[in-house]
Amino acid sequence: MRDQYVKVQPMKDQPMKDQSPYTKDQYNMKESIAEVQIAAENWTPQRVLTWAFETFGNRVAISSAFGAEGMVLIDMASRVRKHFRLFTIDTEFLFPETYNLMDRIEEKYGIAIDRVYSLLSPEEQERSHGAALWSMDPDQCCNLRKVEPLRRKLSELSAWITSIRRDQTSVRSGARRVEWDAKFGLVKINPIVDWTSKQVWRYIHDHDVPYNELHNQDYPSIGCTHCTRAVRPGEDPRAGRWAGFAKTECGLHMIEPLPGSANQGAAKAAKFGN
């Protein structure tokens, strides 16, 4: 296959007549992405971003929680295109340092961060699900404050760009640089998926990229205040997330079978220990 860009038309949400879970446009896009997926593995992150912006235009956006990887991606994007879409899922439980960093990003790069919120305020969530839901059922809390808002946001787009890396968790180990996101029904683009943490921090220091001050206080992975702690010497970099629970993902990057698929029951059994 020749190493070239693939033209993809933005989705128009036309339902297919059969029982496919995808619209006709989604199905066509899924097939088109398969053509570029192999070639994209040899592209630089900058070329991946260029392809994404040229292919999807205003129908693609960067999703970021402003970790070190996210900051690298934002800086790279600013060098590829002056104006690009950037959004974050604001759980309303983020650290003050994270909100401070968001202000610095908007000032440095001259962009406005689109903040996406849960349908429930923290007070409404407490009334509906009880106090401190994160300590009783962190999966449900993440679903309400992260996954559902992301699903709403992605319904506006044809593709989203993330800063995940393969070596972060076992769930992410099989991620491709360009792939079809079956969970949310659009293209998922991971420009630095094959990078190491060392490469990330080298880029940050070489390009004077701003980053969250908590990284200097033993917080390699930063989420909500209630579910993030500093890591101890020798611990895994994500050990500070949901400490005390057998949980390593908030759900945004989980690969899930489609409703009604043969593997759905097995996946549920594996998740909840049968």
Arithmetic mean pLDDT: 84
* Spatial sequence of strands, sheet with the most strands: 3-2-1-4-6-5
Roughly what fraction of the amino acids lie in strands?
5-15%
Number of separate helices: 9
Total tally of structural domains: 1
Largest sheet, in brief, is: 6 strands, mixed
Number of strands: 6
Series of secondary-structure elements, N-terminal to C-terminal: HHEHEHEHHHEEEHH
Helix content percent band: 25-40%
CATH class call: Alpha Beta
**Main structural class:** alpha/beta
CATH topology type:
Rossmann fold
Overall geometric form: globular
User: What is the architecture at the second tier of CATH?
Assistant: 3-Layer(aba) Sandwich
**What oligomeric assembly is this protein in?**
single chain
Distance between the termini: 43 Å
Low-pLDDT parts are: 1-6, 12-19, 246-251, 257-274
Give me the Rg, rounded: 19 Å
The CATH H-level superfamily is HUPs
Pick out its properties.
alpha/beta; single chain; 38% helix; 274 residues; six-stranded mixed sheet; disordered C terminus
Write the SSE topology.
Layout lengths: L23 H17 L4 H12 L3 E4 L4 H13 L5 E4 L6 H14 L4 E3 L5 H8 L3 H4 L1 H17 L4 E3 L16 E4 L4 E4 L7 H10 L57 H9 L2
Parallel strand pairs: 1-2, 1-4, 2-3, 4-6
Antiparallel strand pairs: 5-6
Helix pairs in contact: 2-3, 3-8
Describe the structure.
With 274 residues, the chain is an alpha/beta fold. The protein has a single domain, classed as Rossmann fold (3-Layer(aba) Sandwich). Helices cover 38% and strands 8% of the residues. It has helices at residues 24-40, 45-56, 68-80, 96-109, 122-129, 133-136, 138-154, 197-206, 264-272, and strands at 60-63, 86-89, 114-116, 159-161, 178-181, 186-189. A six-stranded mixed beta sheet has the order 3-2-1-4-6-5, with helices on both faces. The longest helix is centred in the first third of the chain and has 17 residues, at 24-40. The chain is globular, with a radius of gyration of 19 Å. The termini are far apart. Residues 1-6, 12-19, 246-251 and 257-274 have low confidence and may be disordered.
